[in-house]
Amino acid sequence: MTAPGERTKTRGIRQVLSSFEEVRAAVVQVTGLANRTLSIYTHDLEPGIYDHDDFLETLKRFVLARTFARVRVLVTDPTRVITTASRFVTMGRRLNSYIEFRTPKASQESHPDAFCIADDQALVYRPHADRWEGMSDTYEPGVARLYLSRFETVWNASEIEPELRRLQI
Predict the structure, then answer these.
(1) Angle subtended by helix axes 53-65 and 20-33, to nearest 10
(2) What is the pTM assigned to this prediction?
């Protein structure tokens, strides 16, 4: 039992990820933990992850349950996303007051990693976006804030991606 005024550390669930299926499940889990913001740094919005029904349904529940929800997505190479039909992008176009896509400016340093951060506490991190090895943790504020800080820097210097925002009528 803790004394009044003492805080107990919430323990998260940490996982080492080594396969596509593990990464997809971890992204869905972390998305489900978001209360205010979801920040995604991806190279090409991996369709097997971000266009999967489990992710899209979890994301939709998050966005529609909270009027203050915000999803920010940095896509470093939007070429594939622009030329293919992405259901995540389509959802983002419909819910554009909640979901925003941006592209880092060419002058910004490109990072080889990819990550998804819920609020400033839970994350999925892959040091190489072209591989599935990485880690996830449902409660690791120190590490989440470290990557969120880097995300914020790139986000604030990035541009809205007009091709991902345009409504097709």
Answers:
(1) 10
(2) 0.89
